[in-house]
Write a structure and sequence with these properties.
By secondary structure, the protein is mainly alpha-helical. The protein is 33% helix and 3% strand. A two-stranded antiparallel ribbon has the order 1-2. The longest helix is centred in the N-terminal third of the chain and has 21 residues. The radius of gyration is 18 Å and the shape is flat.
């Protein structure tokens, strides 16, 4: 199972990681879909529209809007969560986590986790521990 996850992660990185890593000029704030004006107003301005037929609809920075609005671009299937209600997940936040520092591979610069997550356009390294 871990091999499959590793292969899937490698395929995803090869497919989507290159454009994300190559485009290193926009940070999380500057690439925010609202800040960039993607799909705002009716109809959205021609240069701010994102369509499933666009070759770059799944490339950064449009990717940030696309992932949140994928069901608006093409048909998807709703998955029933069963008869029970929503279950709250336990939460245990460590206030010092943002200040953890590390040195990325291939770099001499020490970074804080907060800075790196901002650079990754993410609030958490979701699921990375399972790969």
């Amino acid at each position: 199972m871990k091999t499959r996850l590793s292969l899937a992660a490698a395929a995803a990185l090869a497919t989507f990681g290159g454009p994300l890593m190559a485009q290193d000029t926009l940070d999380a704030t500057a690439s925010n879909p609202v800040t960039m004006g993607w799909m705002q107003g009716f109809p959205p301005a021609e240069d701010k529209q994102i369509r499933f037929t666009d070759p770059d609809y799944f490339a950064f920075p449009k990717l940030r809007w696309t992932v949140c609005h994928f069901r608006e671009l093409m048909p998807t299937v709703a998955v029933n969560n069963g008869n029970g209600g929503v279950s709250a997940l336990p939460e245990s936040l460590d206030p010092g986590l943002d200040e953890v520092t590390f040195t990325p591979l291939g770099s001499d610069l020490e970074r804080s986790l907060r800075r790196q997550l901002h650079r990754w356009h993410s609030g958490a390294p979701q699921g990375a521990h399972r790969l």
